[in-house]
Structure to design on (1533 residues):
């Protein structure tokens, strides 16, 4: 196949550089040599059919894949020019820099307040003022403050799904990460909650680098600045969202976006 | 009809029947224990039966039933063992001419020979002797019993002092034996001091024994003469009276007070008359201490192992095998644990401890024989699988997303464990604890070979240094049931006490289990929300 | 971020990880060590006996004559030797140095003609001049001031019989001293007749001693020429072996008469009897023949007439290649030592027919110590050999533990468990078969009772009753599960057993009345079934309506029983059982056990079955119901088959629980180790056996180890059962995703 334009765009101000990343589940190869850069303080959406490896891919950025025994990784991921798979890198510190929001909201069975400051507590922060401040700031950023400021000490388990997911986002930003990974954050939510989360993502953009995996192309089109299309463990196309959606370079991308399969 | 059968409805009904049989059995079981146990302390009316052959029989009616020839008969507790020989007698209903309930009848609970039933005839004390007039007799008896109190106190003091002296003597002797074991010269200063101390103690001892004898004589001056139903007289020393009451005169309030009094005795007093009367304090104490000691071993180990299996071990074939094995261990007969305790703890570890630390006492074993420590270690092993399984299941039911969420925020595993997982799993682990404790409280077979006894001379904890005597034998509620129900010479007389003990044990175990069930259901409800 | 804090957290995490891993692994290892330890305790039972060649010393030159007898003390420190000249020499076992030397006093100066050892420390010495000495050799341990042990050997002459008038007519002589002071002397004369003399000393209450003498002659014609005699330790039974293979037995209990009880051919082909001996306890006779066979015989009740006992061959021991010259027996167990003319020593345990060891070399004389722990022999080059025997459990072998064994006093080989008895010389009978049988019997009756109840109860609960009731039934079952077994044992033994004994027939009647009543109710209810409202009303509450049926049935049974009993069984069902059916009714029997164990295992089977059924995806049920199947058809054809592995697992786990239950069986069975399938009597199970016997079992003894073997069998049984069940459940979990 010959490409008229480059299917994979080069980024000048990249925060993350991925070079020839291979990932194996036991014997099967889940990611097949991915090379791309993630632009700083922009929203990057990863799309593709189920099982194409996008969730696995973002879990490489905060090394959540370490938890799974059978996974092997080769290649290189650098964040601000530091190889995160280097032995000298501390996973705990890495995870503080790279926050994550999961597909299924997972608030802890604690109060809303404690949920937000969990990241600070485990880092040993005891300053009450700082904690209070962080809670307010994070909840405000997650657009939960107005709803929740009187219920801070109630259990998080009594909230609605959308609220819980926003709480998880608040929890992630409370430790002021540089990058926030979002793994299909809206897939289990109703349309109203989804639109609130999307709004929130747009608001956060500019302060954080956000990498979002989504199944929903409209959502990718709505919230992201850049879009990467994955297919069976390979990065097929990566570029400005507008460009990818309007004039995809590769045939597979076009097929997927126009809904011919997926 | 055909359709009815073809659709299988009768089978549905038949399965319903099996369920009703199970429910009936359970309810019946509890009913029998409660019905027999709860009324034991309620004062029964004393009945005086005049028989056709002229005899007069006095006692409490304990049972009414039909004999082989369909004639109803009464079982009567007639007490007065020193006169009648037996506590119980059967009387055929047709033999009875009349029944009466004289108000003057007394029930006397004695230190020995069981209850006495009769009327008060004379009261003797050094100050006063009364021989007639019910009213004066009763008040004289009351006064005499009151006057007796200081003497009884002296008696207690003396026996306490003798106990202390005995212990001191034993210690001196042990030290002596130790020195002699080391082949120390008999003229060594240490030995001489000890021998001096021994003689001194022995003189003190002799004085005390003399005091005791005098005290006994003084006590013997207080006595009362009672008349049985057929006019025989019997002397009861006031010092031997534990409690006396006139049931036919008692109102509801007095009966309730009596009941409460007996209940208090049950919890705080020592058993009397080869365990068939008196209290259960040593058995309750032994059971509680056993369960607590067991918990000290089993809970931390079980929880840590559960955490290891679920959170730290690499999942694979090995873990699966181990899990099956642990489940399996929960099903291994308790007697097998008992015999392991005997072979490993008592003869293995205990024997070695004796060799190293108490060689001068051999061949009398110190730790190389059954004791509360070994029994609780054995029970600990028995209950470890219960705690492991409970911990594992509690941790396993926490959704993995919680762990991921915490780790993604930069928490270490240990932080995740202590800040999130353990608090979340705690109701489940607690359930495991309680079930383990309930099992330990009810288990008897392994104790029988690791140190439970029918009558322990002293508690495992007392005021003597080093306060905890974990090598001592102990008493246990479950074994108490087995012992007085099956090893007692007078099974019929022991029955009320067995039912009371059973009721107590069942109440303890069932209330523990109810708490466990409640906690578990609560936990389920909690995760049901978390899981949405 | 606070770096110090991070470091601390990280360090804590590492420490915790190591700690938890170490602890976890240790606990698991420990738990498995339990099995290892229990098995380890049992292992010595089956290990072969060990003999170690301890010493070999040259015989001191001070012993000049031909040695005729040799013996050793139990510590293996001192030994004695009697030579033909009548000199007894005590030697140090280690160095071979002479400790003391003395001459045994005969009547005059004479050589030894014949010497016989009995009880391993007594010697009967027949001198050439026909006088006879009975001596005893003693080894007394002495402790000096430092606690060091030395052995002080000595001997004493108990009695000396003077020479006979015609010494040349005497062939052999045997004497015994019984516990009640009766000296018995048996003389075999050259004309093949026997003389029996008893000297009875009685002491009256004033301490006056009177001695009486009795003499009896046996002059009858014997089947052959007597070659050897044997006399039991107290002189009550005499055996004579002949040169044509016959053995004659006389009873010598009476002072003034002998009673011939038996004459039998003890060998094949008229093989001469070379030597006779008695096994410890005196009940079994060891017959050694000229061709080298070794057999034991004992008295067995004849089948035709119970009163008569006849000698019968019971055990065959390892044969020798040459004639058997001497037979000695252990004073501890039923071990028999024999030496052949070729000088080869054999040790055999009689009951188990275990050949313990062979010492292949040419020895002249040999002896064993009192405690059966040292063997001594003298070879033809005048070297003394001493062996340490380590044979703590001669009575245990796979055969005695699991096979039929013919014990002394029994009429045929049997499985017997009888760990102790009054007399010291009776051997423990340790067959596990009656215990395994008892375990299986109790468990099977219990399962017969509990499986249908538990499984159908669970089916009803999970499929037919309403969700509301299901919630309240589970706690009832859990209550049942948590009742301590000691309580159940107590209730069924002291409350239920007397009731069942009194109204056994009512129970039998109820077995017929309740189903009849049930059928009647079904017939009555059936017409209403066309009414949908009625059906809906009842559905899910059937069990409540069955309660009165059950009660009325029970009440009817109690009412009807006396009438029926007098009508059918002359008013006494139990008597009828015993007289016409040969079944004895014990108060503590398998009916009671079935109830008791049932209450223990029903909750377990119930809840596992319920789990298994509830895990069947509802879609399966829905599909079946949608096809028009009735609720019972759905359960029978769809649910039960799919849940069957789970139900099977439930049964296995329940079985395992019943097998190991101790208190219930301990309290509610008679604990008699009998082998009888009758439901009306008791048994003894493995678990109860441990509880009953362990207080009596000394540490390290055979019984102790056999009880550990019982535990091992229980462990293995439950382990196999539970693992099987667990694998089935694991499989199910995989199939249905959760359990």
């Amino acid at each position: 196949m010959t490409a008229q334009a480059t299917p994979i765009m080069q980024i000048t101000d990249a925060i993350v550089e991925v070079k020839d990343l291979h990932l194996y589940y036991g014997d099967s190869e889940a990611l097949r040599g991915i090379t791309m850069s993630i632009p700083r303080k922009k929203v990057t959406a990863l799309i593709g059919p189920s099982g194409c490896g996008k969730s696995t891919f973002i879990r490489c950025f905060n090394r959540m894949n370490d938890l799974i025994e059978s996974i092997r990784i080769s290649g290189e991921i650098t964040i601000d020019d530091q190889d995160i798979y280097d032995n000298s890198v501390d996973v705990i510190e890495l995870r503080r820099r790279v926050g994550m929001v999961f597909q299924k909201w997972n608030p802890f069975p604690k109060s809303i307040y404690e949920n937000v400051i969990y990241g600070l507590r485990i880092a040993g922060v005891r300053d009450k003022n700082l904690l209070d401040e962080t809670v307010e700031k994070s909840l405000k950023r997650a657009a939960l403050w107005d709803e929740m400021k009187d219920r801070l000490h109630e259990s998080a388990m009594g909230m609605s799904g959308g609220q819980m997911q926003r709480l998880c986002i608040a929890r992630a930003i409370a430790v002021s990460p540089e990058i926030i990974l979002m793994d299909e954050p809206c897939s289990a939510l109703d349309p109203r909650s989804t639109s609130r989360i999307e709004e929130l993502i747009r608001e956060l953009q500019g302060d954080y680098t956000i990498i979002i995996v989504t199944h929903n192309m409209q959502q990718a089109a709505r919230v992201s600045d850049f879009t990467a299309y994955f297919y069976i463990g390979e990065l097929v196309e990566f570029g400005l969202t507008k460009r990818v959606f309007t004039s995809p370079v590769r045939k597979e991308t076009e097929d997927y976006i126009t809904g011919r399969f997926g | 009809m055909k359709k009815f059968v073809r659709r299988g409805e009768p089978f549905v009904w038949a399965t319903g029947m099996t369920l009703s049989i199970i429910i009936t059995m359970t309810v019946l079981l509890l009913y029998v224990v409660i019905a027999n146990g709860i009324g034991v302390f309620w004062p029964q009316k004393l009945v005086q039966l005049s028989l056709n052959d002229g005899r007069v029989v006095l006692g409490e009616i304990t049972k009414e039933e039909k004999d082989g020839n369909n004639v109803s008969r009464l079982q009567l507790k007639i007490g007065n063992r020193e006169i009648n020989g037996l506590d119980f007698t059967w009387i055929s209903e047709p033999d009875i001419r009349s029944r009466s309930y004289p108000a003057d009848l007394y029930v006397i609970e004695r230190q020995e020979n069981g209850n006495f039933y009769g009327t008060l005839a004379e009261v003797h004390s050094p100050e006063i002797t009364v021989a007639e007039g019910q009213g004066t007799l009763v008040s004289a008896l009351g006064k005499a019993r009151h006057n007796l109190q200081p003497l009884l106190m002296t008696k207690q003091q003396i026996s306490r002092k003798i106990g202390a002296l005995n212990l001191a003597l034993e210690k001196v002797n042990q030290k002596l034996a130790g020195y002699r074991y080391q082949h120390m010269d008999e003229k060594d200063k240490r030995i001489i001091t000890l021998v001096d101390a021994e003689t001194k103690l022995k003189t003190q001892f002799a004085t005390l024994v003399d005091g005791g004898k005098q005290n006994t004589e003084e006590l013997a001056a207080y006595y009362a003469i009672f008349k049985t139903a057929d006019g025989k007289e019997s002397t009861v020393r006031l010092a031997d009276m534990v409690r006396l009451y006139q049931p036919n005169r008692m109102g509801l309030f007095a009966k309730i007070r009596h009941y409460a009094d007996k209940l208090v005795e049950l919890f705080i007093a020592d058993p009397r008359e080869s365990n068939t009367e008196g209290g259960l304090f040593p058995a309750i104490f032994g059971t509680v201490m056993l369960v607590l000691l067991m918990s000290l071993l089993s809970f931390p180990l079980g929880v840590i192992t559960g955490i290891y299996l679920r959170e730290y071990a690499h999942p694979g074939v090995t873990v699966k095998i181990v899990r099956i094995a642990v489940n399996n261990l929960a099903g291994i007969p308790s007697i097998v644990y008992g015999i392991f305790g005997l072979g490993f703890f008592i003869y293995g570890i205990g024997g070695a401890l004796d060799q190293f630390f108490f060689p001068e006492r051999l061949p009398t074993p110190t730790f190389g024989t059954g004791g509360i420590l070994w029994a609780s270690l054995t029970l600990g092993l028995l209950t470890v699988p219960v705690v492991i399984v409970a911990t594992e299941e509690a941790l396993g039911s926490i959704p993995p997303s919680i762990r991921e969420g915490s780790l993604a925020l930069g928490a270490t595993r240990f932080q995740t464990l202590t800040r999130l997982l353990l608090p979340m799993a705690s109701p489940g682990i607690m359930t495991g604890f309680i079930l383990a404790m309930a099992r330990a409280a009810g288990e008897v077979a392994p104790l029988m070979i690791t140190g439970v006894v029918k009558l322990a001379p002293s508690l495992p904890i007392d005021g003597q240094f080093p306060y905890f005597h974990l090598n001592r034998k102990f008493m246990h509620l479950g074994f108490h049931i087995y012992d007085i129900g099956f090893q007692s010479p007078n099974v019929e007389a022991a029955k009320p006490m067995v039912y009371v003990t059973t009721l107590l044990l069942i109440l303890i175990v069932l209330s523990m289990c109810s708490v466990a069930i409640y906690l578990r259901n609560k936990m389920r409800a909690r995760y049901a929300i978390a899981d949405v | 971020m606070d770096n110090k804090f991070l470091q601390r957290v990280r360090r804590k995490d590492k420490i915790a990880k190591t700690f938890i891993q170490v602890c976890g692994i240790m606990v698991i290892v420990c738990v498995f060590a339990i099995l290892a330890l229990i098995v380890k305790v049992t292992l010595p039972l089956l290990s072969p006996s060990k003999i170690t060649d301890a010493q070999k010393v040259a015989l001191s030159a001070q012993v000049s004559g031909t040695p005729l007898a040799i013996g050793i003390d139990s510590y293996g420190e001192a030994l004695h030797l009697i030579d033909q000249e009548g000199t007894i020499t005590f030697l140090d076992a280690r160095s071979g140095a002479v400790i003391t030397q003395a001459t045994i006093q005969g009547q005059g100066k004479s050589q030894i003609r014949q010497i016989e050892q009995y009880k391993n420390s007594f010697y009967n010495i027949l001198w050439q001049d026909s006088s006879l000495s009975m001596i005893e050799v003693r080894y007394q341990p002495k402790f000096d001031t430092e606690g060091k042990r030395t052995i002080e050997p000595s001997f004493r002459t108990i009695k000396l019989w003077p020479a006979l008038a015609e010494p040349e007519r005497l062939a052999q002589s045997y004497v015994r001293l019984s516990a009640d002071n009766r000296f018995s002397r048996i003389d075999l004369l050259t004309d093949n007749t026997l003389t029996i003399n008893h000297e009875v000393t009685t002491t009256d209450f004033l301490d006056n001693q009177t001695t009486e003498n009795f003499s009896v002659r046996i002059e009858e014609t014997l089947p052959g020429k007597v070659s050897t005699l044997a006399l039991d330790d107290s002189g009550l039974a005499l055996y004579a072996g002949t040169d044509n293979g016959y053995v004659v037995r006389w009873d010598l209990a009476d002072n003034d008469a002998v009673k011939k009880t038996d004459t039998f051919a003890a060998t094949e082909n008229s093989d001469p009897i070379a030597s006779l001996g008695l096994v410890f306890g005196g009940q079994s006779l060891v017959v050694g023949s000229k061709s080298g066979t070794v057999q034991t015989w004992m008295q067995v009740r004849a089948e035709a007439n119970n009163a008569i006992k006849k000698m019968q061959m019971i055990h065959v021991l390892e044969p020798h290649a040459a004639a058997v010259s001497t037979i000695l027996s252990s004073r501890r167990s039923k071990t028999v030592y024999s030496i052949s003319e070729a000088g080869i020593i054999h040790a055999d345990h009689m009951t188990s027919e275990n050949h313990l060891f062979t010492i292949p070399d040419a020895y002249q004389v040999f002896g064993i110590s009192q405690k059966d722990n040292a063997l001594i022999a003298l070879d033809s080059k005048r070297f003394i050999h001493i062996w340490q025997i380590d044979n703590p459990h001669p009575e245990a072998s796979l055969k005695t533990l699991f096979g039929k064994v013919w014990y002394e006093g029994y009429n045929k080989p049997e499985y017997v468990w009888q760990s102790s008895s009054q007399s010291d010389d009776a051997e423990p009978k340790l067959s596990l078969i009656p215990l395994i049988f008892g375990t299986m019997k109790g468990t099977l009756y219990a399962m017969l009772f509990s499986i249908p109840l538990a499984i159908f109860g669970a089916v009803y609960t999970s499929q037919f009753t309403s969700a509301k009731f299901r919630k309240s039934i589970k706690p009832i079952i859990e209550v049942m599960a948590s009742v301590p077994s000691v309580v159940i044992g107590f209730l069924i033994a002291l409350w239920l057993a007397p009731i069942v004994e009194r109204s056994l027939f009512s129970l039998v009647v109820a077995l017929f009345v309740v189903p009849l009543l049930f059928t009647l109710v079904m017939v009555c209810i059936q017409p209403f079934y066309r009414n949908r409202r009625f059906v809906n009303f009842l559905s899910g509450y059937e069990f409540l309506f069955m309660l009165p049926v059950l009660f009325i049935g029970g009440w009817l049974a109690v009412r009807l029983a006396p009438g029926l009993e007098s009508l059918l069984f002359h008013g006494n069902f139990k008597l009828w059982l015993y007289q016409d059916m040969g079944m004895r009714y014990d108060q503590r029997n398998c009916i009671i056990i079935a109830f008791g164990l049932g209450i223990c295992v029903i909750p377990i089977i119930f809840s596992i079955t319920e789990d298994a059924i509830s895990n069947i995806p509802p879609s399966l049920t829905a599909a079946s119901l949608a096809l028009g199947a009735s609720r019972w058809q759905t359960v029978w054809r769809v649910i039960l088959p799919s849940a069957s592995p789970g139900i099977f697992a439930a049964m296995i786990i329940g079985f395992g629980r019943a097998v190991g239950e101790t208190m219930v069986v301990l309290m509610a069975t008679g604990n008699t180790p009998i082998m009888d399938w009758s439901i009306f009597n008791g048994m003894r199970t493995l678990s109860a056996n441990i509880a009953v016997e362990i207080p009596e079992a000394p540490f390290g003894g055979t019984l102790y180890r056999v009880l550990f073997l019982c535990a091992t069998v229980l462990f293995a049984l439950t382990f196999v059962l539970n693992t099987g069940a667990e694998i089935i459940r694991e499989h199910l979990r995989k199939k249905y995703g959760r359990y």
